Amino acid sequence: MALKTQKDPVIVVLQLSGGNDYLNTVVPYEVPLYRDYRPTVNVGEDEVLAVDDGIGFHPAMEPIRQMYADGDVAVIHGVGYENSPRSHFRSMDIWHTCEPDKLGTEGWLGRVIREIDPRKENVVTAVSMGPSLYRALVAPDVPVATVENLDSYGMLTDLSPEEKLNRVLGRYKRMYTPAIGSGAVMDYLGQTGLDALKGADILSAAPQRYSSTVEYENTPIGRKLKSIAQVHLAGLGSRVFYCDHGSFDTHADQLGAHGKLWKDVSSAIRDFFDDLEEHDAADNVTMFLFSEFGRRVYDNGSGTDHGAGGVCLAIGKGVRGGQYGQYPSMKSADLDQGDLVPGMDFRSVYTTLVEDWLGLDPVPIVGGTFEKPEFIAK
Fold first, then answer.
1. Domain tally for the chain?
2. Which end of the chain is less crowded, N or C, counting CB atoms within 10 A of the terminal residue's CB?
3. Residues β-bridged to residue 322
């Protein structure tokens, strides 16, 4: 059920890295073509967690189905962009920068952070929870606190500040220098890098302030979301959180792997929101899940290959639960090279998050005007 709040809105982005299989996540189990295309890699009709309109969740997503029943989950269908390159790096770059036609240099959330805190008054306005800084968060002179493991970060007392900085940002240099050039990377890693290190040191105190009866599963995504909860509950003014889980690149052995991925993600999300609710701190948090693309409609006998149109989820008390957009047609004449054709531009989804949730002007952030699905309660 949607809830009004006077607290500053917080967004948590969970990136499903590798290309999550749309068809086996939100299953069109009443469409006969689904089993025709997926003779091997399908979810049994008796296993699907039915919701409505012939649509159901993967059986590993029971915690999310319960939240959907409570009105706290929006399923956004057929999200993507035209002419998908079906390349992990290029597609993720497009999602991160909102630049489908050229190589972008600023992340969409980097622009959000700059709008929220233009004077850099809080170096922990944004928190990147993982081994490297996600490109969606990158913009010139925008600090982002980057922490790989919040529980152990404060114990790295034997490392000098320079060594800590290299530990935090070294992977970033290796990841992005080939794409945008060493000059742009080094420009970013000046004062911004030092601010990021300072922010990470501030965050290291969060676990000491934390107490909860919720026991998260000991999984990578469980640990990341627990760390995000700790920072949020510490009251440090952090507004943008980012983490990922994967790999959803299920070319082979998909049935077992995909189920395990969604079991871990679903349980961690349920634990995260239970934790926040226990502390009366859930009403101003919206979580957004996306993947760089969906998978091909036809299975390959063991898994599925890179596709195009995918699905996004928005979760939280500020979400108007339900389904948005249309499930793309599975008729062979409507497919693009064997893939679902996205019917909703990903920048439309960002527009809703930026304007309706964060209260910012979306046009300069997403790079244009896009019709938005109304999945945030007003």
1. 1
2. C
3. 74
